[in-house]
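ARCHIVE CARD
Drawer: 12
Card no.: 0347
Subject: one protein chain, sequence and derived structure
Cross-reference: see card 0346
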Amino acid sequence: MVARVKRLLSVLGVLAALGAFAGLGNATTVVLCPTTGEDGTGCIDGIPTSSPLLLVASDGEVAFHPFGITVDVSDAIQLNANWAPDPAFASAFGGGFWTQLPGTFVWYLPATTPCGSENEPVCEPIAKWYFTPGSPWNAGTPDNLLIFEGAAFDLTQLSDVILVNNTGGPSGTAAAITFNSAPIPEPASLALLGIGMAGLAFARRRKSRA
């Protein structure tokens, strides 16, 4: 019974994070690194339907150096010349936060930022990039890309949510990628949500039996 409750709360945590971050609506969700999550050295996977392929990376709480980055990083993304930071998210690209690897189109979030390190309370700002030519993603591109700590289908803990949509550029219709490195709600909020959802489910079940 306890295990079932924990699993329910984990699932609700995923749903709450997605709902707060992107709005569930008709969103399509894809799990990156589905069998390993961030276990081992970390997760590196491609954004489905991107062409040329764009890669994202998330650490496994150990030293992580994807894409030739020499410093320890928490998260990273490998773009190309057609992508630029969204000015509305300028604070995410401030000193010590999301940084461009010189001479490349790789951006990374250091493991140690001005407000903490991986082993301490740390703020991980939400970063957004847009496709500068102004074209949108093709139909069928997933809206939500999830990276878990540990095997994805154990639903142990959601680590990152990457939103892929057509809200970028001056027109607000160009392809965009938004990287959220800290999507989990606070435990108190998650517990209240779990109690409420479980109560609704129980009430529906009793009504259907009656």
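Annotation on reverse: The helical segments are 2-21, 187-209. The radius of gyration is 18 Å.
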